[in-house]
Amino acid sequence: xxxxxxxTPLGVxxxxxxxxxDAVRVVRAxxxxxxxxxxxxxxxxxxxxxxxxxxxxxxVVEERxxxxxxxxxADIRPGVTGALTSKVDTVERHLSAPPPDGAV
Length: 104
Fold this sequence. Notes:
Helix 1 runs antiparallel to helix 2. By secondary structure, the chain is an alpha+beta fold. It contains 3 helices and 4 strands, in the order βαββαβα. The mean pLDDT is 93. The longest helix is centred in the middle third of the chain and has 16 residues.
């Protein structure tokens, strides 16, 4: 499965980057395939291991913030691995090909 999630500390002001970095450190230390962009961190693995990482990422932010918001989206496909990169590779392959007739 792939889980894309965002952890946001509330009640700490507008600059939340250092709190988010704490959560991303947890994900990266997990050893699971992951990717962070401007909006979400995605992590790939089995259900229990991915959810444990999300829980630890939330917990590390909870240690310093009075309130935490979590947004989570999951793509659950048992037996599929490597989708974190293969999905992007597929889109990039299509982008490098000529567009179909009538497409912009």
